[in-house]
């Protein structure tokens, strides 16, 4: 093999080698870290003992309600050991919990609201999130605005006050909207299958 060929081969090896950053930030459900995808492969690429990580993570989050998404930062050390640090669940999680919904609207906007929360909810969520490192130096007012913005993204309206009767009526009306949307999606899916069948 010539010197040029050996150099080219060496360059290929360098290019093919992927260097992963020492920090991995991801969301892991409390108490439910598992070796399978998507978490397992990410840890394996960094030569982390996946089974050990899952055991340690689940132990550290055992006092948190199972399944809550936990923003997690994993720092990989040169000796392949690791440190785990957590933050409180994402703002969207708290917004949906406060609104009593499982997911946001398909097309967030005034015409398709998925829920409502009050400014009191916003304040309480902001107080929790302000304890996260990323918000340590951020004024509480700005954190409140971030909560309102995230609520809007989820299709959740922020109001000054809301009675139980008003929200119960809203939820009942919302169920009808969701049923109509589900029917519309089902019809579109069937129409697509029919078009594909005719094209064959």
Structure commentary:
The chain is of the alpha+beta class and 200 residues long. The protein has three domains: 23-86, Ribosomal protein L11/L12, N-terminal domain (Ribosomal protein L11, N-terminal domain, 2-Layer Sandwich); 89-162, Ribosomal protein L11/L12, C-terminal domain (Arc Repressor Mutant, subunit A, Orthogonal Bundle); 164-199. Helices cover 51% and strands 14% of the residues. Strands 1-2-3 form a three-stranded antiparallel sheet, with no helix packed on it. A two-stranded parallel ribbon has the order 4-5. Strand 2 and strand 3 form a beta hairpin. The model is unreliable at 13-17 (pLDDT under 50).
What name goes with the CATH superfamily of the largest domain?
A: Ribosomal protein L11/L12, C-terminal domain
Query: So what's the oligomer here?
Result: single chain
Any guess at the CATH architecture of the largest domain?
A: Orthogonal Bundle
Give a count of the beta strands, DSSP E runs of length 2 or more.
Answer: 5
CATH topology description of the largest domain: Arc Repressor Mutant, subunit A
Characteristic terms for this protein:
Large ribosomal subunit protein uL11m; Ribosomal protein L11, N-terminal domain; 200 residues; 5 strands; mitochondrion
Summarize the structure.
The protein has 200 residues and is of the alpha+beta class.
Topology:
Blueprint: H1 3-16, E1 23-29, H2 39-45, H3 50-60, E2 69-76, E3 82-86, H4 91-99, E4 115-118, H5 119-129, H6 140-153, E5 156-159, H7 164-199
Parallel strand pairs: 4-5
Antiparallel strand pairs: 1-2, 2-3
Helix pairs in contact: 4-5, 4-6, 5-6
């Amino acid at each position: 093999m010539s010197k040029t060929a050996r150099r080219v081969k060496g360059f290929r090896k360098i290019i093919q080698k992927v260097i992963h950053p020492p920090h991995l930030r991801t969301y892991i459900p409390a108490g439910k870290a598992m070796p399978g995808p998507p978490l397992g492969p990410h840890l394996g690429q960094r030569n982390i003992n996946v089974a050990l990580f899952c055991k340690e993570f689940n132990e550290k989050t055992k006092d948190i309600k199972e399944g809550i998404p936990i923003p997690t930062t994993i720092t990989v050390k040169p000796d392949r050991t690791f440190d785990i640090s957590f933050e409180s669940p994402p703002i969207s999680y708290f917004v949906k919990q406060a609104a009593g919904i499982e997911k946001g609207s398909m097309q967030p906007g005034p015409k398709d609201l998925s829920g409502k929360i009050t400014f009191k909810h916003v304040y309480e969520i902001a107080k929790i999130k302000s304890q996260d490192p990323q918000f340590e130096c951020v004024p509480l007012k700005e954190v409140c605005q971030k909560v309102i913005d995230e609520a809007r993204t989820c299709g959740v309206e922020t109001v000054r006050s809301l009675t139980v009767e008003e929200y119960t009526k809203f939820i009942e009306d919302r169920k009808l909207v969701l049923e109509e949307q589900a029917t519309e999606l089902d019809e579109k899916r069937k129409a697509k299958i029919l078009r594909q069948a005719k094209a064959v």
